[in-house]
Amino acid sequence: MHAMGKKTIYTLQLSGQMLRVLKITYRFGHVIENVEVQESLLRSPTDRKKTARILRRSLSSLGYAKEQLFVLLPRLSVVCRTLLLPETKDSGIEQMVVLQAPRFLPYPFQELSVGFQVIDTPQPGYSFVHCSIMPKK
To answer: Which of 13, 82, 88, 136 could disulfide-link to 72, CB 3.0 to 4.6 Å?
Structure first.
């Protein structure tokens, strides 16, 4: 059977000591599969290696094969900002985002996790950048 119009997305939610993985498959706008796996993180969710193993196991049990993946974090844990920066190269943008991050949260940059995505380059030498900033702990 041809899978035209079929799409699967995976959503991850980490809250407290619980990891929730949801797999939704739909075809032509109609949900045809909706499966959820919940895993308890018995120790602190900051145990990165253990959390990564549990995450891999959960995704594997749902048949994950590099489809689109969404990660949901508690809203109060992440600050999102869009910045206009005078740079277009990723290395330069990353340096600028790291320097800007402490303006949005009261932590030194060494204690922050920062991610970014270039949204647009409205004119030569400038980039609109979406930044996500959160404490490492």
So the answer is: 13
Distance between terminal CA atoms of the chain? 47
Question: Does the structure show a pLDDT above 70 at 108?
Answer: yes
Give the phi and the psi of residue 32 in degrees, each rounded to 5. -115, -15
Residue 129, beta-bridge partner list: 83, 118
Mean pLDDT of 95-119: 86
pTM: 0.50
Q: How far apart are CA 117 and CA 13, in angstroms?
A: 21
**Residue 104 · residue 79 · CB < 8 Å:** yes
CB contact burial 58-69 (16+ within 10 A = b; e otherwise): bbeebebeeeee
Q: Is the pLDDT confidence value at 3 over 60?
A: no
For 25-33, the CB contacts below 8 A with 24+ separation are 27/3, 32/6, 33/8
